[in-house]
Design goal:
40% of the residues lie in helices and 29% in strands. It is built from five helices and 14 strands. The chain has helices spanning 2-30, 182-189, 194-214, 221-263, 268-278; strands at 31-35, 41-48, 51-59, 68-70, 76-78, 90-93, 99-103, 106-107, 112-118, 123-129, 138-142, 151-155, 160-166, 169-178. The strands form three sheets. The chain has a seven-stranded antiparallel sheet. Strand 2 (41-48) and strand 3 form a beta hairpin. Helix 3 crosses helix 4 (221-263). The longest helix is centred in the last third of the chain and has 43 residues, at 221-263.
Length: 279
């Protein structure tokens, strides 16, 4: 019974994964984007009891302003659309049904989630990988300060608003768009991975020791200090051992030969006695 249950569970899991993969590929292929006028959109950090939420407001028509801005670092937002019937005048997106991330011509609605996070001195709009939530999030925008009310999120360089299209029809769904792919973007902000970093440190340390030992040793002070400490210990230890060993062997050997050759006949008995005691 347990075996049948495990097999059934595995089959269901495979079906779900296959469905997600197909859906992801469908989004990447079928959905396009439409460029928009950036000044007609605003991303707003809205304070909640649990933190912040993201709201995007679009100025659809010029009949009545949908919001106003004041201050600087951060820019505070007055959501004017709450004061009148904004139907046909303002557009509003309040959750993942209304907005998502698009990078490198790929819709990332299924692979990345959008969230607004307070960091102590400002608020960040970030995209986080669903598959690897521990990865460093992609920063899309920031407020450059804190306020008690609605706060404007300024998009980082390279990011812009666009709208999702399907079969050449523009939809209401709003993208935070960057022309760089997610993988390339992550690599640009994290050029050195932990493993590579360890390898580089080891290689650089080793090469510095070798280079400084064979060349003039003036490349950098850190390498010189490392090399000098290592070489001094190695040289002193090696030279002391070598010198002492060689010197003792040489001196003893030379002394013995010299003594035996010159004074052997005169002091043969004394030398023979010393030699026996040494043994």
């Amino acid at each position: 019974m347990k075996r049948v249950f495990k097999q059934t569970l595995a089959a269901v899991a495979m079906t779900v994964l296959s469905t997600l993969n197909v859906a992801s590929e469908a989004i990447a292929v079928e959905f396009g984007k439409q460029e928009v006028q950036q000044e007609r959109f605003i991303a707003i950090a809205v304070p909640r009891n649990y933190g912040y939420s993201l709201v995007i407001v679009e100025q659809v028509s010029n009949t009545t302003p949908c919001w106003s801005e004041s201050g600087n670092n951060p820019i505070q937002v007055d959501p004017l659309l709450l004061n009148f019937d904004f139907t046909g005048i303002c557009g509003r997106a309040t959750d993942s049904n209304g907005y998502s991330v698009r990078m490198g011509e790929q819709d990332l609605a299924l692979s990345h989630t959008l969230s607004v996070r307070g960091t102590g001195n400002e608020i960040l709009l970030v995209a986080t990988s669903r598959a690897n939530p521990q990865e460093q999030p992609i920063v899309i925008g920031r407020t450059y300060g804190l306020s008690n009310g609605f706060t404007k999120i300024l998009l980082e360089p390279g990011w812009r608003f666009t709208k999702r299209t399907y079969q050449d029809k523009t939809l209401g769904h709003i993208y935070f768009t960057n022309d760089i792919s997610a993988s390339a973007y992550s690599q640009s902000i994290n050029p050195s991975q932990p493993d590579n970093g360890s390898s580089n440190n080891t290689d650089n340390s080793s090469s510095s020791k070798i280079d400084n030992g064979t060349s003039n040793g003036t490349s950098n002070t850190t390498s010189n200090r490392i090399y000098n400490r290592t070489s001094n210990k190695t040289d002193n230890s090696t030279s002391n051992k070598t010198d002492n060993s060689t010197s003792n062997k040489t001196d003893n050997s030379s002394s013995n030969r010299t003594s035996n050759g010159i004074f052997g006949r005169l002091f043969k008995g004394i030398l023979t006695g010393n030699s026996n005691r040494s043994r």
